[in-house]
């Protein structure tokens, strides 16, 4: 764990260019899977495609944090909360559960090498640029958070909009399809796809 509290000891204030996604999930494996998938979809919508390193890394971090919230932070009848922000080239994921007495290990590398579990936070520590644990202010519980540098190529935090096709574009696309269709007719096969 690189630091115990967020920078400056308080939650960051949203800026004008910040994108945010917040949702409450049932504290079940199904809720954890849904949270992971929605984070991946949201990052894709914000300009980090599914196969990009930022999307894949943050989705994996989310999977580990939500699995921990379900496994170790579960209180019957209580949900966990997820908050994702993307601002100024930093993606931040926060997972809040209602179990305050069960804190993550300060050094995740102390897990038993033969154990089948306990390596999730070690993975988070390796993948994230920063991570930590902070108390939940309004109620019992804790928030485990991780940050990742997420610079986009070109203009950050802008939606890509496909240009409207012009008449020329449509004409060229249609001609291309017709040309491909003519070359694949069975009677043209004997001439190598060329018409004589």
Strand content: 15-25%
Order of helices and strands: EHHEEHEEH
List low-confidence stretches: 154-162, 182-186, 188-196
Radius of gyration: 24 Å
Q: Portion of residues in helices?
A: 25-40%
Biggest beta-sheet profile: 5 strands, antiparallel
Distance between the termini: 73 Å
Q: Label the overall shape.
A: globular
Structural class comes to alpha+beta
Helix count?
4
What is the element layout, followed by pairings?
Layout: E1 19-25, H1 29-45, H2 53-71, E2 80-87, E3 90-97, H3 120-127, E4 130-135, E5 142-149, H4 167-183
Antiparallel strand pairs: 1-2, 2-3, 3-5, 4-5
Helix pairs in contact: 1-2, 2-3
Please provide a brief summary of the model.
This protein is an alpha+beta fold. Helices cover about 30% and strands about 20% of the residues. Strands 1-2-3-5-4 form a 5-stranded antiparallel β-sheet, with helices on one face.
Features:
5-stranded antiparallel sheet, 196 residues, 4 helices, disordered C terminus, single chain
Question: What can you see in these coordinates?
Answer:
With about 200 residues, the protein is an alpha+beta fold. About 30% of the residues lie in helices and about 20% in strands. It has four helices and five strands; from the N terminus they run E-H-H-E-E-H-E-E-H. It has helices at about 30-45, 55-70, 120-125, 165-185; strands at about 20-25, 80-85, 90-95, 130-135, 140-150. Strands 1-2-3-5-4 form a five-stranded antiparallel sheet, with helices on one face. Helix 1 (about 30-45) packs antiparallel against helix 2. The longest helix is centred in the first third of the chain and has 19 residues, at about 55-70. It starts with 18 loop residues before the first strand and ends in a 13-residue tail after the last helix.
């Amino acid at each position: 764990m690189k630091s115990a509290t967020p920078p400056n000891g308080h939650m960051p204030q949203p800026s004008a260019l910040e994108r945010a996604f917040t949702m409450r999930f049932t504290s079940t494996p199904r809720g954890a899977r849904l949270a992971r998938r929605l984070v991946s979809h949201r990052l894709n919508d914000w300009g980090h495609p599914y196969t990009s390193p930022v999307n894949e890394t943050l989705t994996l971090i989310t999977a580990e944090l939500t699995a921990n919230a379900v496994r170790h932070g579960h209180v019957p009848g209580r949900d966990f909360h997820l908050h994702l922000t993307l601002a100024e080239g930093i993606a931040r994921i926060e997972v809040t559960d209602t179990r305050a007495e069960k804190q993550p290990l300060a050094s995740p590398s102390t897990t038993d090498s033969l154990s089948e579990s306990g390596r999730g936070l070690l993975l988070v520590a390796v993948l994230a640029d920063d991570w930590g644990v902070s108390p939940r202010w309004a109620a019992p519980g804790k928030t485990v958070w991780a940050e990742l540098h997420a610079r986009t190529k070109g203009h950050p935090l802008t939606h890509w909009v496909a240009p409207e096709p012009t008449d020329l574009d449509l004409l060229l696309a249609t001609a291309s399809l017709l040309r491909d269709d003519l070359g694949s007719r069975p009677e043209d096969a004997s001439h190598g796809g060329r018409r004589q």
